[in-house]
TrEMBL record:
InterPro entries: FeoB_GTPase, G_FEOB_dom, P-loop_NTPase, Small_GTP-bd
Start and end residues of each FeoB-type G domain: 1-159
Highest taxon of source: Bacteria
Record protein name field: Small GTP-binding protein
GO CC, one annotated term: plasma membrane
UniProt entry keywords in alphabetical sequence: GTP-binding, Nucleotide-binding
Statement: the UniProt record of this protein carries the keyword Membrane: no
NCBIfam families: small_GTP (TIGR00231)
Organism in which the protein naturally occurs: Syntrophaceticus schinkii
Amino acid sequence: MLVGTPNVGKSVIFNLLTGSYVTVSNYPGTTVEVTRGTAKYNQQIYEVIDTPGMYSLLPITEEERVTRTLLLQEKPDVVVHVVDAKNLERMLPLTLQLLEAGLPVILAVNMMDEADAIGRQIDLDKLSEILGIPVVGTAAALNRGIEQLKRAVIEYVRKRVA
């Protein structure tokens, strides 16, 4: 399940993971769209869910309420929190909320190319060490880091199931 604030590249990552296997539907009782698709990796099929943007697990908007409900009811094998590398500090509180809720989180630090362009350096290994979760750098618009993200998801799920 992909989560994150609006405009961080969740849908770009979703499209790169799923290709054309996409179903868009409104969440029951709302006009909020949830996109579901499938991804194939190493002969395995995975369901991928692109959720509406959210800033907090304490919902204010209908979109946030739907995403929170999906997270808590569907119990995903992994939650990929997509964040904007240029605004990392503003995005990490949601990462911490997801972890405090006991969700299995991988952090995808997206737009690394844009952060590099403004001279922003992010030590992904150190961030992973501090948070205690896998952290992957991506530039989804350039299709960079997507294979690493796939491998991180597969490895994380495999460890949790074992």
